[in-house]
Amino acid sequence: MRELKIIKPGLLTTVQDAGRKGFQQYGVPVSGVMDHYAFEMANLLVGNDAAEAVLEATLLGPEIVFEADGLLAVTGGDLGAVFNGEPLPLWQAVPVTSGDKLAFKGIRSGCRCYIAISGGLQVPVIMGSRSTYTRGNLGGHQGRALKAGDNLSVGDSPLPAAALTQPAEKRQITPAYQYAKEITLRVVPGPQEDAFSTQGLETFYQQPYTVTNECDRMGYRLEGTPIAHEAGADIISDGIAMGAVQVPGHGMPIVMMADRQTTGGYTKIANVISADLPLMAQAKPGDILRFTKVTVEEAQHIWAARQQEMAAVKKALALNPREETPPAHENTPSAHENTPYRKELFRFRRGGRPYALVVEELEE
């Protein structure tokens, strides 16, 4: 049986994937990974589907013994990974065989790392996801953070044997993010921006804020200059997106994250853009945050550019030949076969099942 054995669990190590989507109307949080970029890159490096389940470790990493052959990749924050006693390069896939050991010496940068192995972690799928929501004792491994002595099953590796002998340069990437102690986050205006005074808005965009010790997968409490409201901080509860910046009556912002509640009754001054959420996810107590405003259109362009970069990385890695085989319908003549067009393929999973979507963009 292909397994991982947890010798030491670290501070907080959980099984996570892209999240439990489609159930917020029932009060079920999305959960899933905090840093989607590092998560997807870890999976792509080892030849998995980008949404396969991985381990997310926070601040202090686990000690793991592998009883599965394949590829291993660690991405995200630098928690001092060592593999069989030697420093392990991040953002690179390395061959792993039964008996190999992964451990961590201590944090150097960032806050969270992602541990992926070819085949992915095979915990039960609950509501379409393998992610762990510890507050609800839901998903992952028995609905909780890992403990010493836990064993996790690993799926069959999707890789051909030749992938394990590829040169190192074919199994590594240069990450798009660097994790610093001072972070500038781009945000779009929140739905209650008009609830804040002019002075309050100037404070938010001009003053630095420090991440407090009250920061976890649910949200980050910040401290700094209080943000003034125009009238009050309470609203009729409405939905909360990941990266929403709530400001209660005391004026100190709270950035909501993966395990956030589905609705909330505090004014939201802004929302961190999707492309910068990985930076927010890697912030830790004592880090300094600054916020700068962009338009929704600018945020969309930034996100589209990031997606193109990730598509290029996926193509360059090309660890799994099956990923390069187009679905049958791509060879079917298009209704616009006499018209120049660009074709783009998107692969995704929903409810645990793989899908492929082909988008054809006509060129006028």
Describe this structure as you would to a colleague.
With 364 residues, this protein is mainly beta. The chain has three domains: 3-171, no CATH class; 182-294, Beta Barrel (Cyclophilin), CATH 2.40.100.10; 309-362, no CATH class. Helix content is 13%, strand content 34%. It has four helices and 21 strands. It has helices at 36-45, 198-206, 277-281, 296-317; strands spanning 3-8, 12-16, 54-58, 63-67, 70-78, 81-83, 86-87, 93-96, 101-104, 109-117, 151-153, 182-189, 209-215, 219-224, 234-239, 244-247, 254-256, 263-272, 288-293, 341-350, 353-362. The strands form four sheets. It has a seven-stranded mixed barrel. A hairpin with a 2-residue loop joins strand 6 (81-83) and strand 7.
Task: Draw up the topology in text.
Blueprint: E1 3-8, E2 12-16, H1 36-45, E3 54-58, E4 63-67, E5 70-78, E6 81-83, E7 86-87, E8 93-96, E9 101-104, E10 109-117, E11 151-153, E12 182-189, H2 198-206, E13 209-215, E14 219-224, E15 234-239, E16 244-247, E17 254-256, E18 263-272, H3 277-281, E19 288-293, H4 296-317, E20 341-350, E21 353-362
Parallel strand pairs: 12-19
Antiparallel strand pairs: 1-4, 1-11, 2-3, 3-10, 4-9, 5-8, 5-10, 6-7, 6-9, 12-18, 13-14, 13-19, 14-17, 15-18, 16-17, 16-18, 20-21
